[in-house]
Amino acid sequence: AWEDGQGAREEQQNEQALKITKRIKEKLNGRDFGDHTAKSAVNVEQQVDKLVDSAQRKEHLAQMFVGWCAFW
């Protein structure tokens, strides 16, 4: 019974790893914006502009990782 549970956990981890790997490939190929099924990628300049814009959004700036301890 333990082996069956172990196999199911490993399969779930493999599926998660494949999803993460696919997302990384999309990011590296400029397909991480909006529609993930888009056939055309944004060029490097457009991708940089979109990343900078995203990083400067108030909703993103308002999120803080507690480990940074910016409030101390």
What does this 3D model show about the protein?
The protein has 3 helices and no strands. With 72 residues, it is an all-alpha fold. It is flat and about 45 Å long. The termini are far apart.
Q: In what range is the share of β-strand residues?
A: under 5%
Helix content: 55-70%
Uncertain runs are none
Largest sheet: none
Q: What's the helix-strand series?
A: HHH
How many beta-strand segments?
0
Structural class designation: mainly alpha
Based on Cα principal axes, name the global outline. flat
Task: Count up the helices.
Answer: 3
Q: What is the terminal-to-terminal distance?
A: 49 Å
What is the alpha-carbon Rg in Å?
18 Å
Mean pLDDT figure:
78
Secondary structure elements and pairings:
Elements: H1 2-28, H2 44-56, H3 58-61
Which features does this protein show?
72 residues, mainly alpha, 3 helices, 0% strand, flat
Compact overview of the structure:
By secondary structure, this protein is mostly helical. The chain contains three helices and no strands. 61% of the residues lie in helices and 0% in strands.
